Amino acid sequence: MTSDYSDHSATENEPLWTADDVAKYLKLHRKKVYELPITRVQLSSRRVRFLRSDVLAYTKRQRA
């Protein structure tokens, strides 16, 4: 059986970033990441991830 991913958007296939990943990219402390208005993916009550595209969109909005 083959999988057909042609109907999925690119964001559905991109890797999820941890708060540590975002903090490293933005050069911030991890706790500050949670204060930013970046869309989150809540995997469980204690597990949060971020889409790379959402982090990049946030940085783009900050430049404008």
Give a verbal description of the structure:
- The protein is α+β, with helices and mostly antiparallel strands.
- It has one domain (14-63).
- 44% of the residues lie in helices and 12% in strands.
- It has helices spanning 10-13, 19-26, 30-33, 52-63, and strands at residues 16-17, 41-42, 48-51.
- A 3-stranded antiparallel sheet has the order 1-3-2.
- A hairpin with a 5-residue loop joins strand 2 (41-42) and strand 3.
- The radius of gyration is 14 Å and the shape is globular.
Describe, in short, the structure shown.
The protein has four helices and three strands, in the order H-E-H-H-E-E-H. By secondary structure, the chain is α+β, with helices and mostly antiparallel strands.
What's the arrangement of secondary structure elements?
Blueprint: H1 10-13, E1 16-17, H2 19-26, H3 30-33, E2 41-42, E3 48-51, H4 52-63
Antiparallel strand pairs: 1-3, 2-3
Low-confidence stretches: 1-8
Structural class: alpha+beta
User: Topology as H/E string?
Assistant: HEHHEEH
Strand order within the widest beta sheet: 1-3-2
**Number of helical regions:** 4
Tell me roughly what share of residues is in helical segments.
40-55%
Tell me the number of strands.
3
Rg measurement, Å: 14 Å
Largest sheet: 3 strands, antiparallel
Domain tally: 1
**What form results from the Cα inertia axes?**
globular
